[in-house]
Amino acid sequence: LRNYETTGSVIPSGRALGSALCRYVGCGGGQKILEAGPGTGAVTGFIIDRMRPEDELWMVELNPTFAEHLRGAFRQKPAFREAASRCHLIEGSVQRLGPLGEEGQFDLVISGLPLNNFSSENVHDILQAYGALLKPGGVLSFFQYILIRPARMFVSVGAERTRLKGVGEAIDGVLGEKEFAREWVWVN
Q: 111 pairs with which residues across the strands?
């Protein structure tokens, strides 16, 4: 709760959401996967379970507490330990990946970032970074809570309402006609 702006939920993502987000893991040969905002690793576990031996996972986590938690998971959880040599954790923001952030290098970007908590400019920058990091034909998989933004806009006024409207416009503006699927995960 103290880190509301960088934390999407007070509980980890559920199995149904993790499965939906990871639908494209393990499709194609030798995938290079980026997970942005892995948090405590709930979705990371689904990615690892679906990765093939030739796949690589790069995780970018801004929150140092979550990053340390992930390091612990790679030491303690058998499935994580087994995949550790193909998994790389970077502390920082996806917009500032540095040398790793070469354009067009990832087959799949899976985002756990709480886009509704950010400024519209930040959302736009994050989505632009995803687009630049994806190979042509790559897939971005992310989630939003159903009707949360419209409900929050309904009860908000002033700057908060403007921010939420801008977040929606940033998402729609960057995705545009590139969106090819949308799945409703009701149990999450």
A: 36, 142
What pLDDT shows up at residue 108? 95
- pLDDT surpasses 60 at 74: yes
CA end-to-end span of the chain, whole Å?
A: 19
3-class DSSP assignment, residue 23:
coil
Dihedral in degrees, nearest 10, Cα atoms 106, 108, 110, 111: 50
Give the full edge-to-edge strand order of the sheet including 32-36: 87-91, 56-61, 32-36, 106-111, 134-142
pLDDT digits (tens, 9 = 90+) for 152-179: 777 888 888 888 888 888 888 877 766 6
Task: Report if pTM > 0.85.
Answer: no
Among 143, 141, 142, 164, which Cα is nearest to 152's? 164
Higher pLDDT, 68 or 179: 68
Which of 23, 62, 64, 72 minimizes the C-alpha distance to 43?
23
- Strand pairing category for 32-36 and 106-111: parallel
Tokens for 158? 């002033």
Of 60, 68, 58, 173, which Cα lies nearest the Cα of 112? Answer: 60
In the chain, what's the furthest Cα-to-Cα distance?
A: 51
Question: Tokens at residue 162, please?
Answer: 């403007």
Task: Specify the 3-state DSSP secondary structure of 44.
Answer: helix
